[in-house]
Description:
Shape: globular
CATH topology of the largest domain: Rossmann fold
Number of domains: 2
Radius of gyration: 21 Å
Distance between the termini: 29 Å
Bound molecules: adenosine monophosphate, tryptophan
Oligomer: single chain
Amino acid sequence: MRIFSGIQPTGDKHLGNYSGGFRQYAAYQERGDAFFCIVDLHSITVDYDPADLHEQTINMAAMLFATGLDPERSTVFVQSHVPAHAEAAWLLGSVTSFGELRRMTQFKDKADRQDFVSAGLFSYPVLQAADILLYQTDAVPVGEDQRQHIEVARDIAERFNGRFGETFRLPEMIAPAVGAKIMDLQEPERKMSTTGGTPQGTVRLLDPPDVIRKKFKTAVTDSGADVRRDADSKPGITNLIEIMSVATGDEMDAVEARYDGQGYGHFKEEVADAVIALLDPIRSRYDELRSDPRELQRLLAIGAEKAREASDPTLQAMLERMGFVKSEAGRLFGAVRPREL
Ligand code: AMP
Ligand code: TRP
């Protein structure tokens, strides 16, 4: 089975990213042939600082390995190191409609927060489709917020296959059963996010323990006292139960049973302790990996080479079926042989 997922290097990563992203990547690398892409080309679709992008790309590599990706088993690489992604995105733009992109809720949300809405932000899902389809992906582990993007990738694949002949495998989204959408601790009606959430309601993976404790202590709950799930009337407590389940691996029913009748204050403290226990070893592995950027760059170079080899046949097939003329070297424009780079 071919597994592919992508994560943006920009924006501090948080508990939601761990739950819907990192945790799943580490689990799925055991299930097949896995590719994990640091999507730097997606990061430039909103306002950003080039110096930060540079730094955060290396940080992201450290975080992917710190949360359990094994470079021997998984291919971890940077999107801009594999030109096929940008090339395939351009080609797929011809089988993507303006109407389907305009409907994307992530585009609408992000566009509302920008002074300058870039064309790149609008065509973001086309690049994401290219990422996935180039690798003949079967399964895409992501959080719930990516559902629309994965559906568009499938629609694009089907349209391309119908128009130019069978070229792409249709990918399936895989969201975790628990924690596919972790909510903001202060405003549990919206998802946890460093860009769209509240700072106090967002637990960053690198927050020190005392900061994490304070964030859980001030988490918004309701006027009741039962540690019990009810998404409509108790969104805050429901979210904390999910977080506890993600942090400890215990079933949500078991969490409810354990804290039955104990009140919110005690429960919040114990959720904080569980999250701190989860993140402590991740933070120290991260610090250690981050202290050797050359080793990270070496691993990323190996990943890029493997990713170029894996994606090139699909790009060549796309170009051929779309009617492009081969260059003198007998190759279609998109392909540079990996060793020539
Ligand atoms: P991003 O940082 O936007 O590139 O997201 C990386 C991964 O984290 C994606 O698979 C998202 O679906 C996932 N993710 C982001 N926010 C959340 C959240 N609040 N709950 C669960 N998963 C999330
Ligand atoms: N859009 C995704 C996010 O914000 C990141 C992403 C880019 C991605 N390309 C991908 C996720 C391909 C899965 C597969 O989280």
